[in-house]
Amino acid sequence: MQQLIYFIQKYRYFLFFLFLELIAFQLIINNLSFHKSKFINSASSITGGFYSKTNSMRDYFQLDIENKELLNENLILRNKLEKLSQSIDTPALTGIFEKTDFRQRYSYIQGRIEKNQFRSNYNFLTINLGKKDSLVPEMGVINSKGILGITENVLHSYSRVRSILNKNSKINAKLKNSNYFGTLTWDGLDYNSTQLLDIPRQARLKVGDTIITGGMSSIFPEGIPIGSIDNIANEASIKRIINIKLFNDMSSLKNIYVVKDFDKQQLMNLEKTSNE
Q: What is the CATH code of the structural domain delimited by 107-275?
């Protein structure tokens, strides 16, 4: 307290000058409309810039929250879209009305990649979903750009996914603009490129054609994007190799969806019965 009194006594003339300046400034602002408008505009510009900066900083720190909300919205929309696209109409006469049943085959579980391998010959992904999330082996893993791999080892809270960048990976794929099927594999060279084999010679191919999943298994639904034709090796040979440029950058992955097939167990039981 004593230091405050000493400070006021030492600078009393300067403080009195500032006090008079403030009074004069206030009188000018209140009595002269031109100066008042200039002051308001300047103040609005300064405060506007300040609020803009603070809002930008706040938005930056809330990006993770907003990203999670968008992922949840995408998951809901993807499941709704799947329900509509997989609906099966079964008319049944009920008086003069028809009854329509809608049946959903696939649903999606949202998760995140914890570890991503892409430089070895046999690459795997680790995801933060497991048995507690109803995961089992042989489930497809995708993201918004295309396929990523297939679940292999499933623990309580985590799962290991065999990446499409794995020499043991074999996935049914086809040309988007036709019904010609082949097998998607990887030669272990470029992590942004895979190979499509066993496409019949009569299939017309051109660079840029889109490759999608074939839907000939209970792992991936038909029509999930994979990539586009980059070039064709050994084109004149029976065993031509179609190099596919992946839509995904396999070195930069984070958010994923796991595909759940409600018919998987039924199909497995049917195949088991057929083999007996």
A: 2.40.10.350
